[in-house]
Amino acid sequence: MKKKMNTKDYIFAGAFAAIYIVILVATGMLFGLNPVTFLLTPLIAGIILGPVFILYISKVPKRGAVFILAILSGLTLSSTTIAPLFIAIIAGILAEVVLNDRSKYTKLKNIVAYSIFNIIVVGPFTMLLFARDQFMKSSEYYYGKDYVEQFSALTPNWIILVIVALAIIGGIIGAIIGNKLNKKHFVKAGIV
């Protein structure tokens, strides 16, 4: 198996990145309407996007493919702060390290890589640590004062640790589902 990406791989990377990002943004918008479900977004997005990620790494099993997806996701989530891009770079590199030897396909490797990769979804929540007032003003503008009051009551300073844990758990569940779908449907259908 060639280790370097070729033109076909870049096309697949772009297509999967578009699918991944559209689903990620739609999930954030849908669950962002309620403060409680907004805090659960890393868990829910991780579960929903797990099969997309697993299919992606099965279809483009080359070094750099996951990093490309991480950068594109990080850029998309960096509309209000640069922190999501930095988190995406770190998560992308760590996921690439886990998936380093792709000639040996293992489900556990996929689960670990995706649970790390899914931490990218935590990026926008870092504003709760570094720019809380700005985050609350922006939320009040879009969702109203009641939303912000409820959200503020649900988000003490340590909530970011809970959000990271939810992202990891969502990544584990999503990768498990993705591995099962990959074996049961994608391989049999000849997609992978």
What is the average of the pLDDT values? 88
Largest sheet: none
Number of strands: 0
Helix and strand sequence? HHHHHHHHHH
Structural class: mainly alpha
Helical residue percent band: over 70%
Q: β content, as a range?
A: under 5%
Shape: elongated
pLDDT < 50 runs, ≥5 residues: none
Intertermini distance: 14 Å
> How many helices does DSSP assign?
10
Rounded to an integer, what's the Rg over CA atoms? 17 Å
Task: Describe the model.
The protein has 192 residues and is mainly alpha-helical. The chain has ten helices and no strands. Helix 1 packs parallel to helix 4 (65-77), helix 5 runs antiparallel to helix 6 and helix 8 (132-143) crosses helix 9 (145-154). It is elongated, with a radius of gyration of 17 Å. The chain starts with 6 loop residues before the first helix and ends with a helix. The model has no long low-confidence stretch (mean pLDDT 88).
How would you summarize this macromolecular structure in one to three sentences?
The chain is mostly helical and 192 residues long. The chain has helices at 7-31, 35-39, 41-59, 65-77, 83-98, 107-117, 127-130, 132-143, 145-154, 159-189.
Key terms for this structure?
mainly alpha; 192 residues; 10 helices
